[in-house]
Amino acid sequence: MPPLGYRRSTPSASAAESGAFRAVPDGRAARGTMRALALLVDRIVTLGTSGASDMPERAAVRDALRLLAARIREGAMLCRIIDGQFVLAGEAVDRGLTRDDPLLAGLLQRCFVHGVGGITVRQGAAPGELFTLASMLASAPRGDDVVPFSSDTPTTLSSIGAEPLPRELLRSWSVLVTPAERPTAHLLLTPAEGLAAISATMADGAGASPTVVALTRLASSHSDEAANAAVDQLVQLLDDAELRGEARVVEGIARACMAQLHAVGSGSTRLALERLLRRLQHRRTLELLGERLPEVPDRLQLLTLFARAGEIAVEILVNQLMRVQDATARRAYFDSIVSLDLGATLLFELVRDPRWFVVRNAVALLGEMGVEHADIAMLPLVAHEDDRIRIAVSRSLLRLGTVKALAGLHGLIDDRNAEVRRIAAAAYGLTSTASGSVRPPAARLAMALERETDEDVALEMLASLGRLGSADAVQRLLRIALPPQQPQDGTERPAPRESYLRVAAIESLIRARGQAVVPALEGLKNDPDPDVAAAAKRMDA
């Protein structure tokens, strides 16, 4: 049971949508997002073929990335490949549509080549994450000597490994690519028969080791007396395995016990199995099981055992997470802690740890688990000197989406780090429905936009001004979209904004006021900038 005072935070749908893996309910919008991804992949392939020095193609990749980022700002994307076709937001895409669209057909083929079974992107994913996703799909199939996609952030880790059945092909804070499902190589006939094999310690693989014999006796027991005798032998074997540090033996006994417990249900041998489970919850036993956790193909059985142990199990997994260096293992521990949904007290303590990587992991876990009052613990860290911690804190506060979390993010709009500013800008476009929630004024965001030098951050700011939709926000957007007026003092008229900013302002105005803003933008249909004119003409579509 979670500790007293610990439960998931429940922000409004609009706030939670920015962080959760959610599907876009509109199938047409989902297809548009998927086509934007296909376009970006196609542009990256073209750039890689013709050379990175081709500036027009560089601009084409940049524009495709902006289009995809704009789509993702409006909603998440959930895509699966089932029976050779895309399934978007639970709706199968017509095979004819995919076949007749070269971009979608090419993307589907690349998904087959890479063995992709699903692509999930959170709403508001960072452009860098989207570019990494597209780059993976545009790359040639991975060989054994290719370095997998990864990063040094515990919440942006790839789990591409050397094992034949990887759990995931790419993972970042907002992107998850999973492999296509493959049929199971074989079925286990009984709970003990297949599982006991991994417990054998004999070099020749013979099945006469004491562990195998004990597990076989346990599986064939039909009375409490026989089951207790087998458990007595297994307890002694566990003691010996702990002394020798044989984690693989401990894992085999634990998995066989959990499988047998599921098989007998409430049968006559249940009490004996429960006694063995209590023995498996000793701290040293759990530490050995924790060492094996990243290597286990199916972690559900072990995680069920860890859940029975409570917060001591979470403490062990957190310690493993802080020590391990392998990216795949860190991801395994991180996901396991989140799935257990326990240990908030320990995580609150780790937020104050002097080691930066410990703090980063703790705040990432608190945000992923949605722990109530985690915003209070994180807010002092928004002024931390380490950019890595501020980025992790910003992401977690956005995931929480509480009134305090969003208000704290608003204050980071002038942060020195571009990713922190981008997240802060996105927070301006979200509103929690909790008591005391108010829309932030647009003035500070607009002033920050005038100083912004990063294109991705500027686009996020324009999108949030459109979501705010206040009179002040609309006026700011109009000043950007429309050509500048002639100054009354007779000085030279300033040059218009860059075209990508004007196009983004037009789209934000339509989002804020719909058709009511069309008359004010009618003159832009004849704008000298072709991109601006095209955007204005799309208002009538």
How would you describe what is shown here?
The chain is mainly alpha-helical and 541 residues long. Among the domains are: 27-141 and 167-179, no CATH class; 344-440, Leucine-rich Repeat Variant (Alpha Horseshoe), CATH 1.25.10; 441-487 and 494-540, Leucine-rich Repeat Variant, CATH 1.25.10. The chain is built from 26 helices and 6 strands. It has helices spanning 13-16, 27-50, 55-74, 95-100, 102-114, 127-138, 210-219, 224-244, 247-264, 270-280, 283-292, 300-309, 311-323, 327-340, 344-350, 356-369, 374-378, 387-400, 403-410, 418-428, 442-451, 455-468, 471-481, 499-513, 518-521, 530-537; strands at residues 77-82, 85-88, 91-92, 116-121, 170-171, 175-179. Helix 2 runs antiparallel to helix 3 (55-74), helix 9 crosses helix 12 (300-309) and helix 19 (403-410) crosses helix 20 (418-428). The model is unreliable at 1-25, 144-165, 184-191 and 193-207 (pLDDT under 50).
Quick overview of this protein structure:
Residues 522-541 are annotated as: Disordered. With 541 residues, the chain is mostly helical. It has helices spanning 13-16, 27-50, 55-74, 95-100, 102-114, 127-138, 210-219, 224-244, 247-264, 270-280, 283-292, 300-309, 311-323, 327-340, 344-350, 356-369, 374-378, 387-400, 403-410, 418-428, 442-451, 455-468, 471-481, 499-513, 518-521, 530-537; strands spanning 77-82, 85-88, 91-92, 116-121, 170-171, 175-179.
